[in-house]
């Protein structure tokens, strides 16, 4: 089995790499656009590049210049891909933003987009006609950076490219340097996307090579993904890596996957996909929400590696997934874990494919004091799942609150350095300076190192400090997700200030279908007992109805946003303890 043919220097920008792949693999599937109930639309490398050239002609005619930001707010559509490539060809920077969820209030969407435009300096919006009434007022607003909004899905591409125009654009593409910005991506948020991350062509190419090598990708691999492309795991892991390496991507509609999670398994089965990326919550969804009758004919034996990333890794989630799907050909050794962030293009560490993932049974109370200690018969146990060892050309340290290195086995902030590091937050120098020091990026994640493996246990900003004791909200949420009466995966824990005591106390917001006061009281008592079982006193319980919790753009309940939502809400709106 051949490894991928990838020499960075022979094609060191995105367009040059895609064009080279179209010459090497003209008739090979590049992207298989998957729509439930329909025959997939198959882009070969040759057709993808030829259509991208047509889009680049249209874009140049509109006067779009190198370095300008072109934001794409487009739902699952087969023409998104060549449009994205066409933007890159003319030297502009593509940025993928989330199409608004129907439940999101239009004012919230507008505020989020306006905030991004002001911070990132968005120049053009490419979207669908139905969003015109929402976006047009932003362009007309005084001080707006947005120059225009376009609807590229309506463009007529039935034309022959003028050779002279094509040569002019190819000259622009040829003048792009590998150190130039290649794309803009945003960290996930709830009402908007924040922290605009600029990545150079060289950073992306370096990461494609190093992460592809760590994943042991070959020319026979195929990636299947339902992930939205506005998230770094989808954009880099599932889109840019296969597109640059010359291996097919089977791309599923994220909205359709949410409604029917079995779609990913169907795509893996029919296309014999070998690789997938999936955040932790999706393992639970697929294990718990897919009915056995929907799994007839499913065969996961082709799946060589499925990588868990983008949120804290749960031991129980892996167990549930294996129990459910092993009988459908799933190999437990296909489970892998990646840790990373948009600021390093994607990954920093990875567990070795086809090897068991290291799991440590530790004392939860000692961990809250900053010490990794193996559990014993008297311990409240937490299973810590490894995020693997460093990918080549990445470095990482664990530091204390004074940014001094600490020994292995002690909990501190994870600090990273990478050959594929971002160039800073666009138009946000103060935030860049806050997280950078001496070439090291301070992630805000807490974790520890053990035998060259990194274990990520929580976010610095989310830690609840009760009387000097660190409590990780993930621990509470893990315990409560098994609680009867609660909707699984729909619970968050956070700290609230106790001004009188000068410390924080633990609060929980949980969705439940309980309706009568007796039912609610039983759920409250169950929650309090679950907290006691892990030696945590839960001071306040907010019971809320189904679908109350605000989710981030990555599909996860947001602690910060839901905490803010509770402020000022009356008892008639939320059922509080």
Low-confidence stretches: 189-193, 570-577
DSSP strand count: 28
Please give the share of residues in helix: 25-40%
Biggest sheet record: 9 strands, mixed
User: How many helices in DSSP terms?
Assistant: 17
Report on this model:
By secondary structure, the protein is an alpha/beta fold. It folds into three domains: 8-259, ANL, N-terminal domain (Rossmann fold); 341-460, Luciferase, Domain 3 (Luciferase, domain 3, Roll); 464-576, 2-Layer Sandwich (GMP Synthetase, Chain A, domain 3), CATH 3.30.300.30. Helices cover 32% and strands 26% of the residues. It is built from 17 helices and 28 strands. The strands form seven sheets. It has a nine-stranded mixed β-sheet with strand order 2-1-10-9-11-12-13-14-17, sandwiched between helices. Strands 18, 19, 20, 21 and 22 form a five-stranded antiparallel β-sheet that branches. A four-stranded parallel β-sheet has the order 4-3-5-6, sandwiched between helices. A hairpin with a 2-residue loop joins strand 21 (440-450) and strand 22 (453-459). The termini are far apart.
């Amino acid at each position: 089995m051949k490894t991928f043919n990838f020499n960075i220097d022979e094609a060191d920008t995105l367009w040059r790499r895609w064009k080279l792949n179209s010459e090497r693999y003209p008739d090979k599937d590049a992207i298989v656009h998957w729509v439930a109930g329909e025959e997939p639309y198959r882009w070969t490398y040759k057709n993808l590049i030829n259509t991208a050239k047509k889009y680049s002609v249209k874009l140049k005619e509109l006067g779009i210049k190198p370095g300008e930001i072109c934001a794409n707010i487009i739902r699952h559509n087969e023409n998104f891909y060549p449009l994205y490539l066409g933007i890159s060809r003319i030297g502009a920077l593509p940025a993928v933003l989330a199409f608004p969820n129907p439940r999101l209030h239009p004012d919230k969407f507008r505020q989020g987009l306006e905030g991004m435009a002001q911070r990132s300096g968005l120049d053009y919006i490419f979207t669908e006609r139905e969003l015109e009434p929402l976006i047009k007022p932003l362009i007309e607003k005084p001080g707006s950076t947005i120059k225009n909004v376009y609807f590229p899905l309506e463009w007529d591409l039935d034309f022959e490219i003028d050779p002279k125009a094509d040569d002019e654009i190819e000259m622009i593409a040829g003048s792009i340097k590998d150190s130039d910005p290649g794309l803009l991506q945003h960290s996930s948020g709830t009402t908007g996307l924040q922290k605009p991350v600029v990545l150079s062509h060289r950073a992306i190419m370096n990461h494609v090579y190093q992460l592809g090598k760590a994943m042991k990708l070959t020319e026979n691999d195929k990636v299947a993904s339902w992930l939205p492309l506005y998230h770094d795991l989808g954009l880099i892991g599932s889109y840019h890596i296969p597109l640059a390496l010359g291996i097919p991507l089977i791309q599923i509609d994220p909205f359709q996957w949410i409604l029917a999670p079995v779609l990913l398994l169907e795509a893996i089965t029919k296309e014999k996909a070998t690789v997938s990326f999936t955040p932790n919550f999706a393992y639970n969804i697929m294990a718990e929400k897919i009915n056995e009758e929907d799994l007839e004919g499913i065969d996961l034996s082709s799946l060589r590696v499925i990588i868990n990333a983008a949120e804290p890794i749960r031991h129980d989630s892996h167990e549930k997934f294996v129990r459910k799907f092993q009988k459908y050909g799933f190999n437990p050794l296909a489970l892998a874990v990646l840790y990373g962030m948009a600021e390093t293009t994607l990954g920093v560490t990875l567990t070795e494919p086809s090897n068991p993932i290291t799991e440590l049974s530790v004392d939860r109370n000692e961990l809250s004091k900053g010490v990794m200690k193996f559990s014993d018969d008297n311990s409240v146990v937490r299973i810590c799942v490894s995020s693997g060892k460093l990918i080549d050309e990445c470095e990482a340290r664990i530091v204390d609150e004074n940014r001094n290195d600490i020994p292995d086995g002690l909990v501190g902030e994870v600090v990273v350095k990478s050959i594929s590091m971002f160039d800073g937050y666009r138009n946000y120098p103060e935030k860049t300076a806050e997280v950078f020091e001496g070439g090291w990026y301070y992630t805000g994640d807490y974790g520890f190192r053990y035998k060259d493996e990194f274990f990520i246990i929580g976010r610095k900003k989310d830690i609840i400090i009760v009387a000097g004791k660190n409590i990780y909200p993930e621990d509470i949420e893990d315990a409560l997700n098994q609680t009867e009466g609660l909707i699984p995966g729909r619970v968050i824990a956070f700290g609230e200030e106790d001004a009188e005591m000068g410390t924080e106390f633990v609060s929980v917001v949980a969705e439940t279908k309980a309706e009568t006061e007796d039912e609610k009281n039983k759920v409250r008592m169950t929650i309090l007992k679950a907290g006691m079982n892990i030696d945590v006193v839960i001071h306040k319980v907010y019971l809320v109805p189904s679908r109350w919790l605000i989710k981030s753009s990555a599909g996860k309940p947001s602690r910060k946003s839901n905490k803010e939502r509770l402020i000022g809400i009356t008892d008639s709106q939320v059922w509080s303890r």
